[in-house]
Amino acid sequence: ASPQQVCTMTHDHHPSQSARPTTSVRAENLVAGLALELSQPGDIEGLLERFLVPIVALAGAQAGAVRVLTEDAQQLRLLGQVGLPPAVVQTETLVGRDCGTCGLALGTQTLAWIDDLRSCAQHNHDTYFGAQCRRVLAISLPHGEQILGVYTLFFKQFVQLSSDTETILRLIGQLLGMAMHNARVERERLRVTVLKERQEMVNEVHDSIAQTLAYVKMRLPLLNEAMLAHDD
Fold it and tell me: Running DSSP on this structure, what letter comes out for residue 46?
């Protein structure tokens, strides 16, 4: 069953037999959907943002955010969020790569649970951290030794996810990290291709002008002789 299908109960079902997908089924659907998306060309940042909501739902979090490293790898740019107060979103739009929970995630290849949220609350005047949010889970998006982005999930209570759910979240992070790396490689390849084509055009124009000037230089003496001989 896909996540979009709505299941109903018949009179033969016991009330405790809910037709809603289990966590395992939701996880399988999420991974299958991600694999399908990755097999097709598309906007990687749009993909990261689209998968934020199902990742938040899978973990049972109350809010979530996805961030990516800037080109200089010194800051984290907020790509998308769900459930965060506007005041928090405003201060979290662009943060340093070593900032609190996200900074910790950039230094590890695994999931990072954070219970001490004082670093997150330092640049937020809102009482969100410590009151509405009591625990944070950061999911790094790695490729090799490099971390390219991070999903941050916010929980209003102290929770512990099952090992299966954590494994799925780690797998999703690795798949998306690989996709981000491939997208960057493709962008660089296109940039190099464009530069090469531009240089070839410049060379072609230069060669064409040089040939024309050489021809003119060769013909000018003949023109000069014809003018002196009054040869129209």
Answer: H
Q: pLDDT per residue over 159-181, tens digit each?
A: 999 999 999 999 999 989 888 88
Burial classification of residue 178, based on how many CB atoms lie within 10 Å of its CB (0-12 exposed, 13-18 middle, 19 or more buried): middle
Distance CA 99, CA 75 (A): 9
Q: How far is CA 94 from CA 144, 172, 198, in A?
A: 25, 24, 35
Could you give phi then psi for residue 59, rounded to 5 degrees? -80, -15
Q: Is 83 helix (H, G, I), strand (E, B) or coil?
A: coil
- Please check whether residue 78 is in contact with residue 67, taking contact to mean a CB–CB distance below 8 angstroms: yes
Separation of alpha carbons 136 and 115, rounded Å: 7
Coil/strand/helix, residue 204: helix
- Measure the CA angle with vertex 156, ends 66 and 166; round to 5°: 55
For residue 22, give the DSSP letter.
Answer: P
Residue 83 CB neighbours (<10 A): 18
* Size of the chain, expressed as the number of residues it contains: 232
Supply 168's token pair: 């799925």
Those residues with Cβ within 8 angstroms of residue 95's Cβ, 6 or more apart along the chain or in another chain: 67, 75, 76, 102, 123
Whole-prediction pTM:
0.68
Residues 6+ apart with CB under 8 A from 37: 47, 50, 51
Any idea which residue has 């004082």 for tokens? 118
- Structure confidence by residue, pLDDT tens digits, 85-118: 998 888 888 888 777 667 766 776 678 888 888 7
Q: Are 19 and 9 in contact (CB under 8 A)?
A: yes
